[in-house]
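go over my protein:
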Amino acid sequence: METDSAAATVLVVDDDDLDRFLVRLVLHAAGYRVLEAPSAEAALSIMGSEGRPDAMVVDYVMSGMDGGEFCRKVRAQAALRHVPIVMRTGLENPHLDELARAAGADHLLEKSGDPSPLLDVLAQTLGASNA
């Protein structure tokens, strides 16, 4: 996993400072380069200045533009269309996975204290895109 993630840049988009901080710590420890955005609007700006990330981890519920709208905007841009998006949520809704995928997310994960699902999905996704 270290070799696949060594140079990979992940953009973390979450309006919750603590969640964003914790995801950053986990991703840094796994060897990823992390860019952070406190809102979907800020994420779009960061991609304009920093370039295309290798993957994105996006909160589903954010103030302003939510994760679903953000995914649709990202997928509408040719340069970002194939960047993997992992959406995270604390909501319990049986239809949320379908809604997230319809918006353009590749994966939907429940926010939890266990970082393993996020790390596993990123390793598999980035490994597949780098193969």
